[in-house]
Structure to design on (183 residues):
């Protein structure tokens, strides 16, 4: 492996000397790589970049992403990012979202489609928020039978087996062409 290969979270420069460029983030002290790639230091412009052959797209703080829930843990979900600000991305970058303060039994299920806002990059992990009205689940299924669900006040109800469950729904939930609603 070439010496200038980077992994997410690797230190690539000091922020006193360089600004964070492509595929990097600034942790307040160091410029770190956000992706697996090749270190690319622009000494003239004083910008530290990471190059990737597939041109990975890394969401920036404040970006709205739509992704697929990859894992559900007790206090967070992991989401594989499919769209950044409405633009499709194939790089399959993951972000995590804390669900600790939501007080909802099943915030999301694996394979749900969810809309999140990027909060920060911390130690190589991209953190996102779900606690705004338009953020949350855009598409989900019944946890019992996999059937279609309809919203019912703060809950959802299965049209097949009548199972009632909770999710953190987006205000855009139920709009099947959610991809067109993107900003
Ligand atoms: Zn059901």
């Amino acid at each position: 492996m070439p010496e200038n290969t980077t992994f997410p979270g690797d230190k690539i420069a000091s922020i006193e000397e360089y600004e964070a460029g492509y595929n990097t983030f600034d942790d307040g002290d160091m410029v770190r790589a956000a992706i697996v790639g090749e270190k690319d230091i622009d000494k003239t412009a004083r910008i530290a970049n990471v190059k990737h052959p597939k041109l990975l797209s890394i969401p920036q703080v404040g970006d709205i992403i739509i992704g697929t829930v990859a894992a559900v843990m007790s206090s967070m979900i992991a989401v594989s990012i499919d769209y950044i600000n409405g633009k499709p991305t194939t790089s399959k970058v993951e972000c995590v979202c804390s669900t600790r303060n939501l007080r909802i039994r099943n915030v999301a299920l694996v394979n749900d489609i969810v809309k999140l806002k990027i909060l920060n990059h911390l130690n190589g992990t991209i953190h996102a928020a779900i606690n705004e009205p338009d953020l949350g689940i855009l598409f989900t299924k019944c946890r019992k039978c996999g059937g279609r669900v309809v919203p019912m006040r703060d809950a959802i109800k299965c049209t097949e087996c009548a199972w009632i469950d909770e999710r953190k729904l987006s205000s855009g939930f139920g709009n099947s062409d959610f991809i067109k609603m993107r900003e």
The pocket of zinc ion is lined by residues 142, 144-145, 147, 158, 160-161, 163 (CB under 6 Å).
